[in-house]
Sequence to fold (401 residues):
Amino acid sequence: MAAEKITDGIWSVGILNPNLRVFDIVMTTDYGTTYNSYLVKGSEKTALIECTHLSYFDRYLENIKKVCDPSEIDYLILNHTEPDHAGGVAKLLEANPNMEIIASQAGSIYIKGITNRTDLKLRVVKEGDSIDLGGKTLQFMIAPFLHWPDSMFTWVPEDKTVFSCDFLGSHYCEPFTFDYNVTYPEAYETAFKGYYDAIFGPFPAYVRKGLERLKALDIEYACTSHGPVLTKGNLLDYAMGKYAEWSAPKAAGPKDVPVFYCSAYGNTRQLAKKIAAGIRRALPDAKVDTFDIIKHPMPELAARLNGCDAFAIGSPTLNRDAVQPVWNLLSHVDAINSAKRPVVLFGSYGWSGEAAANLKARLEGLKMSLFEEPFRVVFVPSAEDLEKAEELGFRFGESLK
Ligand code: FEO
Fold:
């Protein structure tokens, strides 16, 4: 798609990537994505908001040229510096070496590392700073952890338009700019939720703050860095409502203490069941479900792990290590919010039993709070082993009171 006008003086000049299926190694993008960027022209000055992915730079420059000559751009506003947007900055500076780069304090540091340049014309902006383009004002709202440490929003009050960085964004691509043209709303909603979970799920308190700040504005257009432009009366209301719902503090209720395991011959499974029984004995009201990891969808297990109060996880030892599905589940841990989460480790082994030590190292790396030492059993658990497993679960449950 080429440049498209949003309001008088504001254009979308970003890039569509409908075929992308994996973003940043780990995020599936079943509906592709867009790398959004916007030109804002005042009577005196011109600003470009966000840049683009290096791979699509040439097409991007062509989009800009449909609105203005790149040499006319006075300011490059970096609402954040993630390389899918900031990766093209060094090349953009070849097209226009005179533009001033505007970023938050953290962004001003990161962009030096991304461009490998120390001679950038950089201006650091703080909360409440503004730039007058002539009839259009860029007002900067520092918004850390939405979703990078350097993130900020840019508000143009004259056009009731907010450039919200990744906030309210989605990896969703149709050949249209505006939300009211979305052809597959259910697909959009799926993409919107997946994006929230992956990008903003770890930062609910910051999301709530961000929402409050946006609610205080009378927004007509929310120009995100991915997905369609959201408009008042259309998907903007939906998006804000969903963010409020998903970021709401968890209601107090019974503790959630799942027990995850893999088991080739049923030995580790027996330990899992007994540990779960012990936890239930200590915490009769708690939600204590056991999950054979290979029998459940990974996103479901990951959501349960990241939302629980504490958990137990067990693996047999295979080739001197824990088994791959256990590692896979632990690779989904929300490391930002999992520090100090109590965890019990267990497993049966035959020869050497390295799984427990390897998992312990991983969980310590995640700064989780390991309860006692890993409980290991050689081959088939005896009646005494099973009793010990249940007692371990009971002590673990007691420790959570
Ligand atoms: Fe995809 Fe955080 O920009």
Remarks:
- The chain has twelve helices and 23 strands.
- The pocket of MU-OXO-diiron is lined by residues 80, 82, 84-85, 147, 166, 225-226 (CB under 6 Å).
- The mean pLDDT is 96.
